[in-house]
Design a protein that fits this description.
This protein is an alpha+beta fold and about 475 residues long. About 55% of the residues lie in helices and about 15% in strands. The protein folds into 3 domains: about 1-215 and about 330-415, no CATH class; about 225-325, Pdz3 Domain (Roll); about 420-485, no CATH class. It contains 17 helices and 14 strands. The strands form 4 sheets. Strands 6, 7, 8, 9, 10 and 13 form a 6-stranded antiparallel beta sheet that branches.
Length: about 475
């Protein structure tokens, strides 16, 4: 299956042996002079390889030529980052308030999921993870580099931080003194360009994912459920999660609308035949289902009669006993969200759907343990009649979907995490400059009004203190939020 392609995972024993082998290899390269030849060095207890290269500088120079355009891009990036930082901060505050008021509501997840290392974390496969991190880190650092050149700052080197084949980070090395001495607004644009470029890239890739998603069709027209209600008619008849329902009582079912229409014509207490395609072996079976009462089911759940009336549920309505009903292309449609060609809504609907879709994309690897589409839903897919489907077929489409998904996921991850207002993240540098600007404004106001005097060193002192304090507080908060489920 394409979802499993490049989805290699390692156990802790294999990881230890690989780390040891990597360390010994680095020591050998260092002693033999190879690292000096490659303009590389060992850092972080000698376990991480910092590789520098001047390659890409000529391309960077050409790309950054339209200076006015890139400065405008930098200004847009800055506003996008300010907005994203607001929502990141708001999310952290809401998480803190929820933790204080409601206590810990989350189950402790495996510790390995907290390590965002491809192959080691069960939610990030080695192959897809390495490809996505390398591409997205290059995008991120190229964004910084373009802004540096657009504002006249020199870039000495590009580089990657490597732990074996795993990319741990990337960097663009502008001249440090030029960054420090540059105007604050230009410096902020440079810091904002990296995460903003990741966010812009993710948006473009989501649009592309939507177009690819439109090339799929269902292998078996029908509907399936990921959850079968215990002791319901479906459960007693032998229906299992991911089985595809193709007909009920002789009526064909192509999609969820057909299912609703068929169920509206049936009543509680009826025993009807239901044809299903079994998940796993693809065989077709006919199950006899004793339909129960939907009205009674919801009453037992505690739903009051007025709510049931508002939901247009009456006594005697037929109830099969399935939840999360979806069509054959639901797995890929879920990823595409608002970008799918068949998705239609109002302008407000799109505005609401975009952040919801981003949230769904981010939690997908946690739900499906490192794959973009549940294996059962992947088996339900077939290539459609579009030009792309005809050209590359089902396997090619699935490869594209997985590639686009992981590029989107990592771009969003890098873009948002880099906006945490703590050093050494880009958001920390932006926050530091914001504080410096506020303190400078206070000092200038005192000079103009003559009401008070503020020494320039006070501005620098307060800025450093505020930056250090915010970084420390945020680190403590993140540790508490992450560690709370384990307490």
């Amino acid at each position: 299956m394409a979802s499993g392609f490049l989805s290699v995972q390692f156990g802790w024993t294999e990881v230890f042996l690989l780390v040891l082998a990597w360390y010994l290899l680095l020591r050998y390269w260092e002693n033999s002079g190879k690292l000096d030849e490659w303009n590389a060095s060992r850092i972080f207890f000698g376990m991480v390889l910092m590789v520098r290269t001047s390659k890409g500088k000529k391309s960077l120079e050409k790309v950054s030529k339209p200076r006015k355009f890139w400065r405008a891009y930098g200004e847009l990036s800055l506003w996008v980052c300010w907005g994203a930082m607001f929502f990141v901060a708001l999310g952290i505050i809401l998480a803190i308030v929820s933790l204080i008021m409601m206590g810990n509501q989350q189950e402790a997840r495996p510790v390995s999921e907290l390590v965002a290392i491809p192959g080691l974390s069960p939610i990030i496969p080695l192959g897809w993870g390495v490809i996505a991190f390398v591409v997205c880190l290059v995008i991120h650092e190229f964004g910084h580099g373009i802004q540096a050149r657009a504002h006249g700052m020199r870039v000495r080197n590009f580089g990657l931080l490597m732990a074996g084949p795993l990319p741990l980070g990337a960097f663009a090395e502008p001249e440090y003194t030029e960054i420090v001495n540059s105007p604050r607004r230009e410096r902020q644009r440079m810091f904002a360009a990296g995460p903003a470029t990741n966010i812009f890239a993710a948006f473009i890739l989501i649009v592309l994912l939507g177009q690819v998603a439109g090339q799929f069709s269902a292998a078996d027209p029908g509907v399936h459920s990921s959850q079968i209600i215990v002791d319901s008619g479906a459960d007693e008849a032998g229906l299992e999660a991911w089985d595809v329902i193709t007909s009920i009582n002789g009526s064909d079912i192509q999609d969820s609308d057909d299912f609703a229409d068929v169920m509206d014509g049936l009543s509680a207490g009826q025993i009807v035949p239901m044809e299903v395609v079994r998940y796993g072996n693809g065989t077709t079976e006919t199950l006899m289902v004793n339909l129960t009462d939907k009205y009674d089911y919801y009453l037992e759940l505690g739903v009051d009669e007025e709510s049931l009336e508002a939901m247009d549920i009456e006594q005697g309505d037929a109830f099969l006993g399935v939840q999360n009903l979806a069509g054959g292309t639901a797995g890929v449609d879920r990823l595409a969200g608002w970008a799918h060609p068949d998705f239609e809504t109002s302008a407000l609907g799109y505005l609401i759907s975009v952040p919801i879709n981003v949230g769904q994309l981010l939690i997908t690897p946690f739900e499906y343990q490192g794959v973009a589409i549940h294996p059962a839903q992947e088996e339900m897919l077939d290539s459609g009649d579009g030009w792309l489907a005809s050209t590359i077929g089902l396997s090619g489409l699935l490869f594209l979907v997985n590639l686009l998904f992981w590029l989107i996921w990592v771009n969003i991850l890098l873009g948002l995490t880099n906006l945490f207002p703590m050093i050494p993240f880009d958001g920390g540098h932006l926050f530091k400059d914001i504080v410096h600007g506020i303190m400078t404004g206070i000092r200038n106001l005192g000079k103009k009004t003559g009401l008070y005097k503020v020494h320039p060193l006070w501005v620098e002192h307060v800025t450093r203190k505020a930056s250090s304090l915010s970084s420390m507080l945020l680190l403590i908060v993140l540790v508490l939020l992450i560690g709370a489920p384990y307490l």
